[in-house]
Amino acid sequence: MTDFVESWADGPLLALDFESTGTDTATDRIVTATVISIVPGKSPDVRTWLANPGVDIPAEATEIHGVSTDYARQHGRDAAVVVAEVADVLTADWSESTPLCVFNAPFDLSLLHAELRRHHQRDLEMVGSVVDPRCIDKHLDRYRKGKRTLGDLCTHYRVRLDEAHDSAGDALACARLVWRLAKAYPRKIGTRPLADLHRDQIAWHRADQHNFAEFLDRQARRVDERAEADQLRERAADVRTNADGWPVKTAVTASSAALVHAHSR
């Protein structure tokens, strides 16, 4: 039963989402970006960007978010400008009392961090707490079967998702999920001090990744093909390397980034 108690979720929230050229946060690029500022009593302030990423957008990525290479070149703005503007908006609106809602934060924030390094030789500044509904859900309901994409979680928690794989639609759905989780779990989530909840998610993500690495190691011991076993052990090592990479990985391997993102969309 949902317990509607007063919590940080009743105050301002900030939500972020990107669509990209692919799943490798170290090398892929931002295509569309949305930051939504949600203040109680006001209409959401939705800011969106379309970037020309400077590289071809693979057909498989276009199939997901609908933006082709030609369209981005004709209508997108310079990637360096877009990246700087997104980071500036976050710096201005994100604070200790206004959390940043990001679904699968290690992907989106690591992507932004890499883009800032690429175009401006600077790091993503963490100016407040992050709330990641995917991380929270995996901790609260660890043994629930099935995928945990944004669409899956919206269905499970009865949250409206207007347009999947549209950065604005996904960002708004993420904020709705955060609010729903805060209200459904007031003691563990909704009334938890934001700084403490941020640290909780770091620990939950670390534990989840180590559990997944152990699963991969067990699978490696069960297979007969040496090449397959070695591949599984390599994936396990990548996962352990990035276990402390919530909410942002400053150094990430391509295989683990792709693996995490593939299971979250």
Automatic annotation (TrEMBL):
The keyword S-adenosyl-L-methionine does not apply. The keyword Hydrolase applies. Coiled coil: none annotated. InterPro entries: Ribonucl_H (IPR013520), RNaseH-like_sf (IPR012337), RNaseH_sf (IPR036397). GO terms for molecular function: exonuclease activity. Residues 12-187 form the Exonuclease domain. Gene3D superfamilies: Ribonuclease H-like superfamily/Ribonuclease H. SMART domains: EXOIII. Keywords: Exonuclease, Hydrolase, Nuclease. NCBIfam families: PRK07942.1. This is 3'-5' exonuclease.
